[in-house]
Amino acid sequence: MTRRPMPPTQSGLFPGLFAGFLGCLLAGSACAADLPRRAAPPPPPLPPAFTWTGFYVGANAGYGFRGGSSRYSDATYGTVTESGGKGGFVGGGQIGYNYQLTPGSGWVLGAEADLQATGFGRRGDGTVGATPYYGVAPSLDWFGTLRGRVGYAFDRWLVYGTGGFAYGGGSRSPYASTYPYTLPDTTRLGYAAGAGIEYALTDHVSVKVEGLYVDLGKQSTGTTVYDATVPAYYGTGRSESGFGIVRGGLNYRF
Q1: Cis peptide, bond prior to residue 174, ω within 30 of zero
Q2: pLDDT tens digits, one per residue of 179-237
Q3: What is the pLDDT of residues 35-92, one digit of tens each?
Q4: Angle CA(153)–CA(203)–CA(63) in degrees, nearest 5?
């Protein structure tokens, strides 16, 4: 006689199912612990702080205007009135070096040399009373400066002051050969001082606006001579060699 197995009771079925389910959970947790975890990507590196340190070259252009009066009184000949414009074009190039003490914002030290052509340094022709006056003082055709710069940078903005040595030269008057007295030298020495603001458009290109006062020495009145063959007066006159310039510039930094 064959004996049939007894079906499991309800009380034995649930404990077995629970034990199997618990085993699966434990096995799944262990397997999940063995899987590699995906780490969060690192944040992108911060860009380096901007610095003005480095060499640069550039070009500039602007307007120059002479100082001093265009009319004065001569003790012998009376009122002398200088003719010609008091201002004109000035332009040229510059080269320099900056060193920023702390990148980002901070003090900036530098040096700059420039060479400029002028359109306002003509000789001082004019009149003595109503008679033409032919000046024989040399013109100012060009000038240059060698200056230090001290400024403070606000990231890409730089505000600075500047000052140093200035020099210049020009050409003699066509009437100089008929002048019987000693003429001033065409070479002039003096100083320059000013201030400006500069902004870096990119890491290499910057633009600036600058005001500068240049003094190349005041020439004396000299002697005025009457030439009956013209007839006219001629002489060194009085030449005010101090002048101001306002200019814009473009620099390329290496």
Answers
A1: no
A2: 777 777 788 899 999 999 999 999 999 999 999 999 987 655 566 666 766 666 666 65
A3: 566 777 887 777 788 999 999 999 999 999 876 556 777 766 777 777 655 788 999 9
A4: 70
